[in-house]
Design goal:
This protein is mostly helical. It has one domain. It contains 11 helices and no strands. The radius of gyration is 22 Å and the shape is elongated.
């Protein structure tokens, strides 16, 4: 049993390195409290791996992962657009607002369920689920479950640690923009894996870069137009910088 646990742990940990789930953990850790993100990842890992070993051991069949991948992609793209909208529209409000973690929209319970649902959907439609199903069909399913949960949480914890280290040196607005673009990238990659699995991993990731790139260009253009508008309109209470002679 110990050998199966170690095998499952190693397989899942290595499979999660650089995967979209680890990128999601990094993205969430950039914006929210690490212990809430890790709790959500742990709960999702327990649930999704239990489903996977149950499918592999008892049913011998797979879930409709293509459909789940499309649903997950839509959710991630929506979260990405929402994050970018907040980053663009709320930059001035954030300067006078209290700490981000004190916001009701970022309460621990809401963040926990957001992380839980995102990871649950992402892992149900992920390729690593097939590895869990395969392992549980030929090994002790309890040992596979324990090892896979530990491996997934360890990979997520590594991404969270990286997110904490990065977040200490990056401004809040830059983190929000980066998080939104990462969500768009992960969502686009997930969508392609669901609708065009024949593409292969590298073309899928390359094409997915076009979505956050386009969003970044749009955000930059909006920022330039806002800056130009502010430059043309003097702030309330400020004197007109033009000399008096210009009015004669």
């Amino acid at each position: 049993m110990i050998a199966t646990i170690l095998l499952s742990f190693g397989a899942l940990f290595l499979a999660e390195l650089g995967d979209k789930s680890q990128l999601m953990a990094l993205t969430f850790a950039l914006r929210y409290r690490w212990w809430v993100v890790l709790s959500g990842i742990t709960a999702a890992s327990i649930a999704v791996n239990l489903i996977a070993v149950g499918v592999g051991h008892f049913l011998g069949a797979s879930l409709p992962t293509d459909v789940i991948a499309i649903i997950t992609a839509v959710v991630l793209l929506a979260v990405g657009l929402w994050t970018l909208r907040d980053a663009h529209g709320g930059s001035k409000k954030d300067e006078a607002a209290p700490a981000a973690d004190d916001s009701p929209a970022r309460s621990p319970l809401r963040v926990f369920f957001m992380v839980l649902s995102a990871f649950l959907l992402a892992e149900l439609g992920d390729r690593t689920m097939f590895a869990i199903i395969a392992l549980s069909s030929s090994h002790n399913w309890v040992a596979v479950w324990i090892g896979s949960v530990a491996g997934m949480v360890a990979a997520g914890g590594l991404a969270i640690a990286l997110g904490i280290a990065v977040g200490k040196h990056v401004p809040e607005r830059a983190i929000a923009i980066g998080s939104g673009l990462l969500f768009l990238y992960i969502g686009a990659a997930t969508l392609l894996s669901g609708v065009a699995p024949q593409l292969g991993r590298l073309p899928e990731l390359a094409i997915s870069l076009l979505v956050p790139a386009a969003a970044g260009v749009v955000l930059w253009l909006l920022g330039r137009s806002r800056t130009a508008a502010r430059a043309e309109t003097p702030a309330c209470g400020e004197e007109d910088p033009r000399p008096l002679d210009s009015y004669r």
